[in-house]
Amino acid sequence: MEDIIEGTAYVLGDDVDTDQIIPAEHLVYSLSDPEERKNYGKYALSGVPVDGAGLPDGGKNFVNEGRFESDHKIIIGGKNFGCGSSREHAPACLKIAGIKAVVAESFARIFYRNSVDGGFFIPFETPAQMIKDIRTGDRLTIDVAKGELTQHSEGSSKTWPLKPLGEVSEIIKAGNIFEYARKAGLIPSAKSAG
Amino acid sequence: MGMTLTEKILADHSDQDTVVPGDNIWIDVDVLMTHDVCGPGTIGIFKEQFGAESKVWDKEKVVIIPDHYIFTSDTHANRNIDILRAFAKEQSLPYYYDVGTKDYKGVCHLALAQEGHNRPGEVLFGTDSHTCTSGAFGMFATGIGNTDAAFILGTGKLWVKVPESMRFEFTGEFPPYIMAKDIILQVIGDIGVAGATYRAMEWAGDAIMNFSMEERMTLCNMAIEAGGKNALIPADEKTEEYVKQRTDKPYKIHRADADAKYCFNKTYNASEMEPVVAKPHSPDNKAKVSEVAGTKIDRSYIGSCTGGKFTDFLAAAKLLKGKKVAVDTFIVPATTEVEKDLHEKKWEGETLIDIFKNAGATIGEPSCAACLGGPKDTFGRTHGTEVVISTTNRNFPGRMGSKQSEVYLASPYTAAASAITGKITDPREFIK
Q1: Which of A19, A193, A194 is nearest residue B396 as measured by Cβ atoms?
Q2: Distance of alpha carbon B204 from its chain centroid, rounded?
Q3: pLDDT, tens digit (0-9, with 9 covering 90-100), for B348-392
Q4: Which residues of B touch A28 (CB under 8 A)?
Q5: Which of A26, A88, A176, B389 could be a cystine partner for A119, CB 3.0 to 4.6 Å?
Q6: Hey, what domains does chain A have and what are their CATH numbers?
């Protein structure tokens, strides 16, 4: 787990569902094949309606044409981020596109759980709405230990509190549910051969 | 303090006598279900974490039901079925329902029920958010991702946070034109798409218990559209009759305690319910059918785990009998058992399949089909600006294929009535 996450913001609205994050027609690619899985980066957030793609202006591609990674490292979302299906391709595609943290007012349950157990990125919840104040492209820093997000703009900066990670922080620190379970002695400590 | 049905089942599968909402506990899993979209990823993680030669924790408890991208020329999708087939063979899995064979079933949530994998009191996880459907059998069932599924494949266990429970009671009797789909759309509209996040939705009341098992499944199926973790209807004689016809395995009927604590309670008068739809682009965008009646549609779609069961088609057939559809109408039986019933069972002397064909509808093969869009050649998928009335479960932008199409979620009665007129139509125009 990184202590400091830096990058620019890609801002989305409320109720961004998993069909917007990764449209179902793309769920055919292998997640374990290193070449094939790049497609998930290419199509990440490709289902977001144009008006909502990169707030406040919209119309900004998350991943540019012909690329497999986004220029952005942090997603700022509203309420109920990741609602809809249980497809783990949703958090996976954001990681493959280079996302390190998703910061939202609230998350849908399965998406949140998949993000933590799969160790794709850190899902932070915020006490306040941020999607009206942070603009796509704003430079951000997240101090994970302090639980703070700082928005840098010319000559000034604004710091926002993040909600504590709470009971899932041990899984996040371990890396994923398997590493957590190994540390806790719930499954054998070394991966078996093969 | 008393426990809700969800708490009872979770406690029974943990090493604790009692649990309370918020507890993080490890539970033993009775059934893990996966399909062609999430199975290959799950298998990949299982092998990476436990080793290429590893065996699943209990092959009797793993159920693999390919159902999403079946009748397509997409080579990646077809390759994914090959991965499932090879894994089932390597692990000698008895419950693999292979494509292109007599074992093929179709949509997993109905196939689980029909093949006897839904049993009261059990814990079922599935790599599909609509796994909550199985809660209709008085069991704990919820959707998970590939990582959690791979963890279960290796260990037979998973950590869960015990959810708070919400209770929805319907007293009295539903009018004859009301289906379970109207009820779940009504409730989602009332509490919102995040109204049940991290919570269990428990259903109660005479009106609910008068529903058939298939209607109960519809009710539980869309709990996830309110953000719910699981849905539950207590098992009764109807449940036992259905289960006993399909499995010899033992089961356990739990009851909520009289002093169980619910974080939310709402009682509805069943007789006051009206046909409703969810307007584009959210399942909680509720309107009475009477409020949107007259809206022109291009297509009517009847299918999926939500609205592709025999009961759903019987409802549609009652309205379509002797009529012609005014718009493209797609009929997609969820499973091969439903398909067989469409060919064999009759309404007023005519088989359902003949009623649909004579009405001018197009019949698809059992699978998830266009409910979630899917590969470009998927049956019934939208490609443009189609306005669709559909018995499926989600109407997010692009859900049925095209980002420009608009989907109204509705009951089979409303979808059939609208197919006849070419505009959104209250089923009461046809059901007196």
Answers
A1: A19
A2: 19
A3: 999 999 999 999 999 999 999 999 999 999 999 999 999 999 999
A4: 69, 74, 76-77, 80, 375
A5: A176
A6: 4-183 (3.20.19.10)
